[in-house]
Amino acid sequence: MPDAVATLRLPPRMHFGYGARAQLPEAIHIHGRRVLAVLDPFLLRSPLYGETTDALTAAGLELRVYSDITPELPVDTLDAAGATAREYGADVILAIGGGSTLDAAKLIALLATHDGPLSRYYGENLVPGPVLPIVAVPTTAGTGSEVTPVAVVTDPARELKVGISSPFLVPAAAIVDPEYTLGSPATVTAYAGIDALVHAIESYTARPLDITWPGTLPVFTGRNALIESIALQAARHLGPWLPVAVRQPDDRQARAEVAMGALLGGMAFGSTGTHLCHALQYPIGALTKTPHGLGTGLMLPYVMDVLRQDNDVAERLTALSTALEGIPVVTRAAEINREIGIPATLAEIGVGREQLPQIADLALGSARLLAISPVTPTRDLLLDILQRAHTGQLTEERTA
């Protein structure tokens, strides 16, 4: 592969498997004693909460709990939480929760170390240096935030959610114990899991970027030779097992398979980036107030249906089809959506045909995501995808 390029920025320590939470005291202790535990408020009602905190205090760690986490992550609450972390003198941030909780922990670690307001760091590579170490423990299988360099917030001054991307936001440790995901509601499992599959597919189909080695690299570097096998493996775990985890929430093997797929998907897109499903979801989600994973999952078959007209994308979708039990990607993505309850069309979630041009225009503003689209993301292309997604029009597949 003479033209292959790759960059990986991952936690130096990752543990996966039932019981992996037993590694938490050691993973935290190497960074200090004073722990700000940023926890999903739902965890406080779980038996695992007491077990986890008892193990940490027994190991001599001092805990302060912060659980004022909301799904939209309003920026003003994070500014206040950063001040709390500074006043407490935290040595390390422990994050246990879903994607919003892990993102909140990253931004609290940032504001505990560097002056606010948070808005000064919107965009890429604007975090000036290391943040407090973060030990990340996901309780949903989807965002991959435990291994990625990005966090997303809601700023009332902006039309869309805002991302802060920096290698300094990659956690110091990721501990993925599927036990934390048992009992997750079916909709949470479905929306998080399909988003993980989108991560795998979009990272594998990303455009190669022209990388200039001297100087600061972009956070997301496009097609990445080191993650291609990881993305395919993520699809192998998610494709067969996500519907099982949604139907049978206590199936321990299904939970483990989906958790592994989400972890691998996060490793893949955290280096490569995502593209059109995500660029389109942000305005769709803002207009309809629907969950992120619902939107990316809904858009996945339509985006890939249009992109596979490109020969290079079609070749990559053939490899992905092999990972998805030999079923063509567009067909299998649509099947999985039906099986797990993702709406089939934009019309079903309240999008009017007259809103499609506005969505396309807003999506065109997502420069980072569009930069790694495997085909040139013109307004006409985005409108074509949106119109298909509005009516449910998919091309009959003969090959992947």
TrEMBL record:
The species this protein belongs to is Acrocarpospora phusangensis
Q: Where is the Fe-containing alcohol dehydrogenase-like C-terminal domain?
A: 189-389
Q: Which residues form the Alcohol dehydrogenase iron-type/glycerol dehydrogenase GldA domain?
A: 11-178
Q: What is this protein called?
A: Alcohol dehydrogenase
InterPro entries given in the database record: ADH_Fe/GldA, ADH_Fe_C, Alcohol_dehydrogenase_Fe
Q: Which Gene3D superfamilies does this one have?
A: 3.40.50.1970, Dehydroquinate synthase-like - alpha domain (1.20.1090.10)
Q: Which UniProt keywords apply?
A: Oxidoreductase
Renumbered to this chain, the signal peptide range is none
The entry assigns this protein to a family as follows: Belongs to the iron-containing alcohol dehydrogenase family.
Q: Which GO terms describe its molecular function?
A: alcohol dehydrogenase (NAD+) activity; metal ion binding
